[in-house]
Each structure stands twice: as C-alpha cells, then as structure tokens.
Amino acid sequence: MASSWTREQNKKFEEALALYDENSPDRWQKVARAVGDGKSAEEVKRHYEALVRDLNMIESGEIPLPNYRGSGQSDETRRLMRNMRLH
Q1: pLDDT digits 0-9 by tens, 16-47
Q2: Dihedral of CA 44/55/3/15: which sign?
Q3: Is 16 in contact with 31 (CB distance < 8 Å)?
Q4: Can you tell me whether residue 29 is helix, strand or coil?
Q5: Which of 35, 36, 48, 85 shows its CA 20 to 30 Å from the CA of 3?
Q6: Strand, coil or helix: what is 43?
Q7: Which is higher by pLDDT, 16 or 81?
C-alpha cells in the first residue's frame, strides 16, 4: 500500500538520498529518520523504488520528462532529477 508524501517529506527524502548513498550502512533507516513523520525504512525504500521506476520510464522515453516550472519545486530538485544516474 502506498502512503502519501508531502512536498516537505519529498524534499527531506531527496536530501537524505544525497547524504546516504547505496553503500551507507543502514541506508533506509537513516533516510527514514531524516524524513521523519513516522515513515518506516520499508516505506522510504518503496518510495525510492517507485522513483527509480519513474526515472527508468523517463530515460527510456516511455513518458516525457515532467515540466516542474511553477510547481513549487526548487532548481535543486530539478537538477537532482536530471542528474540522477541509475545503476
């Protein structure tokens, strides 16, 4: 079951992903703590997996890159979306 995520939680999630890479011990627990609001390690891991699926679809051309202008997302978030490289 997908839980809802606020804009603030997504921002904290993105910042935590930048801090804790795939080699970080207990990565998902650390990301969950950074997001707060009762998000579990399993929830943040599922949220990440959904993000990876979305990015794979964007990179493969299945769906166009979203236009976040005017959506309230920061330049930093847009840069993260453009620069995130998948393994």
Answers
A1: 999 999 999 999 999 999 999 999 999 999 99
A2: positive
A3: yes
A4: helix
A5: 85
A6: helix
A7: 16
Q: Whole-structure pTM over 0.85, yes or no?
A: no
Give rounded-to-5 percent helix, strand, coil for the chain. Answer: 55, 0, 45
Tokens encoding 36: 């707060």
**CA atoms of 73 and 87, how far apart (whole Å):** 25
Give the Cα separation of 64 and 13 in Å (integer). 23
The predicted pLDDT at position 87 comes to: 42
Give the Cα separation of 20 and 28 in Å (integer). Answer: 9
Please state, in angstroms and rounded to a whole number, the distance separating the CA atoms of residues 75 and 32. 24
In this prediction, what percent of the chain has a pLDDT beyond 70? 71
Q: What is the token pair recorded at 76?
A: 């930093």
